[in-house]
Amino acid sequence: MSQDNKDKSIKITLDDLASVAVPQDAPAIPSATAAGKSYGSINAASDPQASVVEEKGSILLQAWFYLGAAGLLGAVAGWGICEPHFIDGGMGQSWGNWLLIPLIVALLCLGFGVAESVVERSVKKALLRGAGCLGLGVAFGFIFMFIANILFGIGIAIIREMGVQSERNPSLWVVRGLAWMVFGAAGGLVYGIVGMSSKKTLYGVLGGVVGAGLGGVLFDPIALLTHGGAASRAVGFGLVGLATGVAVGLVESALKDRWLYVTAGPLAGKQFILYKPRTVIGSEQSCDIYLFKDSNILKEHAIIDVSGPRLMLRAIGDTYLNGQPVRQQVLLSGAVLQIGRYAFRYQERQRN
To answer: Which candidate in 136, 257, 285, 342 could, as Cys together with 124 as Cys, close a disulfide (CB 3.0–4.6 Å)?
Structure first.
């Protein structure tokens, strides 16, 4: 530095620069790609939550499976209660004859209402939904049995006029299938009502009509193969319950618009269809999406609101969207949402 510098400013001369020496043993700055290593980029997620390992989902969490199983168990249970008191060809002679169909419908509805809550591990929801489904199922069972009997009587009269007399004639099978669609509609209706969603009600009714109609058509062929009696009723009603539950699950899944698919966590493989204007996610059992076994999740951790054609995510607790912490953000199809140990993939149905 020059000795003639009288003020306090720092001045560097050419002689100063020439005297600077670089140590020969100074460590080299590693290259971003040296030895095949990568040290990230400005586009990389800044939080370890960005790394999501997608888990394989269980078939037990598929709606068509657990609703089908619930329908089968409900129908067989109803048959099992009434069968000891059922008299072949004796309508009006035993309470088993009168109560068979209404009880099957009631237990079918009970199964649908409880199954989803059991899968989601919510005992509170299961009890509330079960009570609602059982009450509505009993009432609708009698009402819809009356309607179905009218339709069946009209159908039988029509095919008799056409000369159909044998039980082996497929026309009779179709008439029974059409009448039994009413029972499936009852199950789907209760399923949607308890779910507090008009769309869920619509999808439930459509699925119930398809499933029960199929079961009704096959009921008489089964009776012919098993030579009638208790065995045919057990298999026939069981098939109706199974087909109705499977159809409700498949129709609901096929017609869904927006949903969250669980890719990681205890519920991996489960899909939550977003029916409501507001969906609450949290560790409280009353939440629309109940997340259990994670103490880091708040009772109400995040809320998804319908905002016009889009869904708006509002986070209350720590929430990550595509690996980045978020407080409020519009959800786009394909986005990955993380809350605690759970990960979801948001999807929308493609519109033409």
So the answer is: 285
